């Protein structure tokens, strides 16, 4: 199962970089409890204003942009250009798409950004439906 997950993730990265110019694909967990699904995305360094959560009939889509703002660092000024000695932190546009199961209540989806984690709760329809 692990190899399939890795392959799927590799395919997602290739699609993201070729279809919309994305250079970064946040990591995602999807968990299921009795009453809901919980989608968690790692979005460190992303301002809440750079996160967009959209829901349509079949998909949950999270898009936005992460840019490291060097001018906000105490040691830099607005006009300084940093000289990198090492650069591993990806930035740029991102897009995550999760196909929604058929048993979800799309009208009551909620999202919260907590310590760099975007937690999206997708409730299931109650058994009465």
UniProtKB/TrEMBL annotation:
Coiled coil: none annotated. Belongs to the small heat shock protein (HSP20) family. Residues 1-27 are annotated as: Disordered. The keyword Zinc does not apply. This is Small heat-shock protein. PROSITE patterns: SHSP (PS01031). The keyword Cell membrane does not apply. Residues 1-14 have a biased composition (Basic and acidic residues). Gene3D superfamilies: 2.60.40.790. Pfam families: HSP20. Residues 19-129 form the SHSP domain. The lineage of its organism: Eukaryota, Viridiplantae, Streptophyta, Embryophyta, Tracheophyta. Keywords: Stress response.
């Amino acid at each position: 199962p692990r190899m399939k997950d890795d392959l799927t993730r590799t395919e997602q990265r290739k699609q993201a970089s070729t279809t919309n110019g994305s250079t970064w694909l946040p990591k995602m967990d999807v968990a299921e409890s009795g009453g809901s699904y919980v989608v968690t995305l790692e979005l460190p360094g992303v301002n809440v204003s750079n996160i967009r959560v959209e829901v349509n009939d079949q998909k949950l889509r999270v898009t936005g942009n992460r840019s490291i703002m060097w001018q906000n660092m105490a040691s830099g000024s607005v006009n300084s250009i940093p000289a990198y000695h090492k650069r591993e932190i990806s930035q740029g546009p991102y897009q995550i798409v999760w196909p929604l199961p058929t048993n979800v209540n799309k009208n009551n989806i909620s999202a919260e950004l907590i310590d760099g984690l975007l937690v999206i709760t997708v409730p299931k329809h109650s058994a009465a439906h």
